From TrEMBL:
One of its GO terms (biological process) is proteolysis. This is Putative aspartyl protease. Residues 1-382 form the Peptidase A1 domain. Keywords: Aspartyl protease, Glycoprotein, Hydrolase, Protease. Belongs to the peptidase A1 family. InterPro entries: Aspartic_peptidase_AS, Pepsin-like_plant, PEPTIDASE_A1, Peptidase_aspartic_dom_sf, Plant_Aspart_Prot_A1, TAXi_C, TAXi_N. It holds the Pfam family TAXi_N. SUPFAM superfamilies: Acid proteases.
Length: 404
């Protein structure tokens, strides 16, 4: 489930994934889907243009080897949309567009458009694109039911890098409640406490319209507020800048100059009390990292994301920006507890001048319900106990919960 892209796709037989060693591969566990060519999307379809980044229907029909006389008479419906290339930050694929019925709980979406990939690079699973584009799941839901498609939210359970750990899934909520039901729901969640969302406005991006871009005004480390550069506060007329809220990226990425300022303030406060773990930084690529002496709680300043808009501050829990783990115990070194700051350098400011200024990753979103209100064009954050959120909804909705 990826808010940073707008295509819904999955592997189709026969399927080959390049450089997917060590990743879950559906060809090894479940048989990839077999899709009938009768369900192929026409090259005249707007969905085909969207997949090919707004090529005209005439260009697409020519690529599909539609004869000139058919193009001139607008009679290309029998020719399918040609294969397209789709890229992510860490992988890519080649797919074709198809239409079929999609069942979601008690509803069925007719003529649902999706990509069918036979070859992928580093992407073995498939992705449900939740971006703002025509092909995304929310956009297609909205054509069936505006009530379902105009808002969605998710609540990401705490990260764990232990592959053996059994975790409950993170709930995804499609649609919204009317005001009366929503207030009742707020009281049920978290033991009767009314939980308020903190909202910030979505920024329109003419160059990357599928991004959920917001303005980041500053980051506070303890009681010191570090103003964000202009490139994170807004999107310019060329579509550059802004902070992308992305469920599909792990860590928050900041422009180098801003990142360095935040790290310097964090180190000024933590480094004067705790020993810097330089060896860990060299080995893991994380940083800054510090040794936490046995029995001593690390003194860590509170980190707050200050988004554009009044009352749009999000106070991060400690686990959302400090990763704590044990290092050593290999017979040479004794085990020592280490804590590392989990914000990342997104690159030089000049390199980020052509595109988004930064990314809010899912590591910093854990333990929050993040709501995307497409009707009011805003993104909201509220602290939640995500592992029990689904149970709370079921108390309200009187549904049956299957324990896993």
């Amino acid at each position: 489930m990826d808010t940073g892209s707008d295509l819904v796709w999955f592997p189709c037989a026969p399927f080959e994934c390049i450089l997917c060693e060590g990743k879950s591969n559906p060809s090894m566990s479940t048989k990839p889907a077999n899709i009938s060519r009768n369900d192929a999307v026409s090259c005249k379809s707007p969905a085909c243009s969207a997949a090919h980044t707004s090529l005209s229907s005439s260009d697409l029909c020519a690529i599909s080897r539609c004869p000139l006389e058919s193009i001139e008479t607008s009679d290309c419906s029998s020719f399918s949309c040609p294969p397209f290339y789709y890229a992510y930050g860490d992988g890519s694929l080649i797919a074709r567009l198809y239409r079929d019925s999609l069942s979601l709980s008690s509803i069925t979406l007719r003529n649902f458009t999706f990509g069918c990939a036979h070859t992928a690079l580093g992407e073995p699973i498939g992705v449900a694109g939740f971006g703002r584009g025509l092909l995304s799941l929310p956009a297609q839901l909205a054509t069936f039911s505006p009530q379902l498609g105009r808002q969605f939210s998710y609540c990401l359970i705490s990260h764990s890098f232990d592959k053996q750990r059994v975790r409950r899934p993170s709930p995804l909520i499609l649609g919204r409640y009317d005001d009366e039901k929503e207030e009742k729901h707020k009281r049920i969640v978290d033991g009767g406490e009314v939980v308020e969302f903190v909202y910030t406005s979505m920024l329109e991006n003419p160059k990357h319209p599928y991004f959920y871009s917001v303005g980041l005004a500053a980051i506070s480390v303890g009681n010191r507020t570090i103003p964000a550069p202009e490139m994170l506060r807004r999107v310019d007329r060329r579509g550059n800048g802004g902070m992308v809220v992305d469920s599909g990226t792990t860590f928050t990425m900041l422009p180098a100059s801003f990142y360095n300022s935040v790290v310097a303030e964090f180190d000024r406060r933590v480094g004067r009390v705790h020993e810097r773990a330089s060896e860990i930084e060299d080995k893991t690529g994380l940083g800054p990292c510090y040794y936490m002496e046995k029995g001593v709680v690390m003194e860590v300043p509170i980190v707050t994301l200050r988004f554009e808009g009044r009352g749009s501050d999000v106070v991060l829990p400690r686990k959302n920006y400090l990763y704590e783990f044990l290092d050593g115990g290999d017979g040479v070194r004794r085990k020592r507890k280490v804590g590392c700051l989990m914000l990342m350098n997104g690159g030089d400011d000049a390199e980020l001048s052509d595109g988004p200024g930064g990314t809010l990753g899912n590591y910093q979103q854990q333990g929050f319900e993040v709501v995307y209100d497409l009707e009011k064009k805003r993104v909201g954050f509220a602290r939640r106990h995500c592992a029990s959120l689904w149970d709370s909804f079921c108390v309200f909705l009187h549904c049956k919960v299957q324990k896993t």
